[in-house]
Amino acid sequence: MIGIVVVSHSRPLAEAAVALAEQMVAAEGPKMAIAAGMDDGSFGTDAAAISLALASVDSPDGVLVLLDLGSALLSTELGIEFADPGLAERVLISPAPLVEGLLSAVVSAATGASLAEVDIEARRALDAKIEHLSGNGEGRAALQVARPTPKPRASSRRVVWRATVRNPHGIHVRPAAMIITSLRDLDAEVTFSNATTGKGAAPADSLSSIAGLEIGCGQILEARISGPDADAARDVLAGLAAQNYGEDIKPRASRSLANGRTAMPRVFGETPAAAERRAVFGPVSRIGLSPPVGEYRPLTPKDELARFNEAVAEVDTFLTEIISEGEAVPGILEAQRLMLADRELQHGVVGRITAGFSAVDAVDDQLTGMARSFDKFSDSYLRERAQDLRSLRRMLLIALLGRRLEQETPDEPRVWVLEELDAATAMRLDPRLCLGVVTVAGGSSGHGMLAAQARGIPVLAGCAQVADVIDAQIVAFDPVTREFWPNPDEKLRAELERRNAARTADAERARLRAHEPAITRSGKTIKVEANISSIDEAQAAARQGADGCGVLRTENIFAKDLTPPDVEIQTEVFVRIGQALDGPITIRTWDPAGDKPLAFMPNQPEDNPALGERGIRMMRRAPQIFRDQIKAALLAAQQTEVQLLIPMVTDPAEFVWAKEQIESVRAELGTDPVPVGVMIEVPAAALRAGEFADLVDFVSIGTNDLSQYTQAADRTNGAVRELARQDSPAVLELLRLTRAALPDLPLAVCGDLASDPAVTATLVGLGVDALSVRPGMVAEIKEAVRAI
Amino acid sequence: MELSPQILAGWLRAFAADIAENEALLTDLDRQIGDADHGANMVRGTTAVAQLDPADFADGRSYVKKAAMTLISTVGGASGPLYGTLLLRLGSALPDDGPIDQAGWLPALRAGVEGVVARGKAGPGDKTMLDALIPAVEAFEAATDQPWQAAAEAAAAGRDATVPMIAHKGRASYLGERSAGVADPGATSSALLIEAAARTLA
Question: Which residues pair with B193 in a beta bridge?
Fold first, then answer.
């Protein structure tokens, strides 16, 4: 049996190619050796290493060398010269493409073929691909995803275009969809890459590939364009960039102030989350949960291609109908439609069908694989797009099984059980027909989840138990306690009705006493403040009876501004929020982070943004932006009661620096000092709380990040949600330590923990003086305090 | 001039210093018509060569061969096998250590450059290192006085002559006509090699 040597510039590339090829042969394959990359890990080829590799797989039958590009050939020729003359005569260098050629060569060699025969097989390795793409195959004709065949380009132009991306989420699916649609009709070949990270290139007709470049805010999108319409394509791209690829990222705060009303995002409405907090009892309807693919009877590849084609058309029509109903957020469904026409998706499925898969298996395999690759993205927004792909997979399978996509919707009130809640489904939820939603998988931050909750539908996400329930089975769940009962009895039903009645009564009572102070039975007054991200929220919190604002999330208010907001605008926003609440406001200084970036101050791409340059760490790099905010806060303090809160402090020295900046701005303005507090959200700061005693005027515990850093668990990740609980013993212990180290300072808790009425007693017991909660929860938390 | 490992090390160390000094230039030229790695690759290779101790070698031939193998194993790009072949063939054709003159050097230089022709399958006018090396050897042979000086001047002129040429070999050939207007990075580093020889071997 011949030996095989793989020569490549990259060792991982060569190793992966060999691993792939080894899968092709069952027991005994040819001996293979790798000569790839340089010793220091850089790219390159080394003739001496090639010579050694040749010797290691030498046999009387000869050795075939497969190689990648450029110097690989020169180095191999030199390496053969170095080899023993007898060996050199038995070596052949294959002109075949590395991956395809290697696979063919390994398969052929394993049959005991001669060196010459293996060489011929390797050379033929591209034939299948060439034939498939040549446009003559039946499969292509049937599919109608034909791409224009490359034309000879006499007047071909090559253009390179670059632009810095300003979209807060970068070039995610929607901007990518916009790019593809706009370039579609031009006779130009365009590839994109991320010039900042070097990722790429991606073809201009693959949505997943372009989104997969993970071009974040502040990074540079690069296009390489050739073809007769190259200049037109560049102009189109420049126009798209000028409109931020169809996304509205214009600064809003200043504009809305001018006309007296705010257009800031409204996260919490006037009504507290009463409807979505209902416990639910009722019969199940399994929606799109693993369609019964066992029923499918595959036909010939040609028929399977036709069926796939029909299914694509059907799903496309279905999505178009939802969009035309006008209710949905069209961008997401448009992106799903484009994904349906995505070249990677289409070619992957067609390739599998051509290789003998049934249409169902091909769709299942290809879309599941693509969704998995989205799961691996570091950007959480892109990760969520995996949901869209799984949703497409489900829809295609349903269509292939000959079922109407519409049949999915039950016609009587049911508890909907889904694999996960995607946007398309959530937007079609009718509260009259959907008692509640239970999902098998999925975290709590997806679009679908938020859309359902916004419609007042109770949701229980990530409930593995529900996978086994059957249609029409009676189940029950409580979205507040996160309990699930697969076979509830009438007794439980009565219990849940009591819970719902009590919750309604609590909400009602709370509303009546909302504007009274929250005093425990033992007579301690607890300030219940609101976490505020907009003027709207400040007004909602005021209606709920908030005793002020415990955290003003300034980075959320001005997140979309492309330039730092000037001092006057910031001052005006602070004053208006203070006046709306008619109470003290705690202005948290800019706290940008990977998941809440400031458009005017993008975070650098980091491998681990949660542990990177955020909060006060970032301010030390941009002291003027920090000082302008301080200035606005001090000016606002002349009209409304203000205190300052410094986020993401790890070391007391960081707080000292912040205080120095504040004092120097104050001295310049000649205004009165304001209280300055530290946010304890890093375990290091909690453990060293005592060192802040003489530096700070008050302390606020940010339990969201404190839990994440203490438990090493991301609360938006369904797989570790239980670990990320904010009331874990370790987090409560850090709270206790902070209180013990700083017995005389006002201590507040902000973060989601404070909004949970079930732990209010615990927090008050630990000596907390103030709770800063979601605006909609103020009245209820006040009631919880009164019950202590 | 006495041929010895020391005198040859003086040459290649001077070459290494010139490469290091011109890394940015080489990278920039290669960035315009290639893949921007020539500067870094050559610095990596020649730095490794400069670290060889000539005292470890029995004669000039064995030093040059070791230098060639070092380049082959450290440069990484196409320059590795090309410069490696140049020095391997040149080393093999060197006479024994001792006095060496123009007639003693000429076969070695020819052998080296012929090695590059055979390895790279390029010829004059293809916008490669040969456009500096071939004129250099011709000038060395033709010179009646100061052959190294003549070779260095011819190499520099050859390098400059690559500016309007269109590449036919290597990465630059993908650019076709757009490769014109920039000096070839390989010819530029080759001219440095001959210029270093003129300073240290003459």
Answer: none
Mean pLDDT for B95-105 is: 93
Picking from A358, A271, A754, A749, the residue whose alpha carbon sits closest to that of residue A544 is: A271
The catalytic residue positions of A are 447, 750
Per-residue confidence band for A627, with pLDDT thresholds at 50, 70 and 90: very high
CA of B163 vs chain A CAs: smallest distance (Å): 21
Among A86-95, A532-541, A699-708, B68-77, name the one with the lowest average pLDDT.
A532-541
SS3 at position A67? strand
Q: Is there a contact between B84 and A43 if contact means CB atoms under 8 Å apart? A: no
CB atoms within 10 A of CB A568: 12
Architecture of domain A513-786: Alpha-Beta Barrel (3.20)
Residue B174 has pLDDT above 80, yes or no: no
Mutation to test the B interface, candidates A8, A71, A80, most B Cβ within 10 Å: A71
Whether the complex's predicted ipTM is more than 0.95 is answered with no
| Section A286-314 average pLDDT | 83
For A199-249, write each residue's pLDDT tens digit. Answer: 777 777 776 678 778 888 778 898 888 888 888 888 889 888 888 887 765
Q: What residue type is assigned to position A340 of the chain? A: L
Pick the CATH number of A157-257 from 1.20.1560.10, 3.30.1340.10, 3.40.50.150, 1.10.630.10: 3.30.1340.10
Q: What per-residue string of b and e applies to A32-55 under the rule 16 or more CB within 10 Å gives b?
A: bbbbbbbeeeebbbbbbbbbbbbb
- A20 to A28, A117, A125, A139, A630: CA distances (angstroms): 15, 21, 15, 26, 58
DSSP state of B139: H
* B87 burial level (CB within 10 Å; 0-12, 13-18, 19+): buried
Answer whether residue A262 shows pLDDT above 60. Answer: no
Domain A266-289+405-512 has CATH 3.50.30.10: yes
* DSSP state at residue A269: -
Average of per-residue pLDDT values in chain A? 82
Q: Do the chains contact at A77 and B81, CB–CB below 8 Å?
A: yes
- pLDDT class of A380 with cuts at 50, 70, 90: low
pLDDT at A88: 87
Chain A residues whose beta carbon lies within 8 Å of the beta carbon of residue B83:
none
CB distance A78–B119 less than 8 Å? yes
Residue A89, min C-alpha distance to chain B (Å): 18
Contact A370, A383 (CB under 8 A): no
Say whether domain B2-200 belongs to CATH 2.120.10.30.
Answer: no
- What CATH code would you report for A3-132? 3.40.50.510
The full set of domain ranges for chain A reads 3-132, 157-257, 266-289+405-512, 513-786
Cα A717 from Cα A706, distance rounded (Å): 16
CA–CA dist A672, A661 (Å, integer)? 15
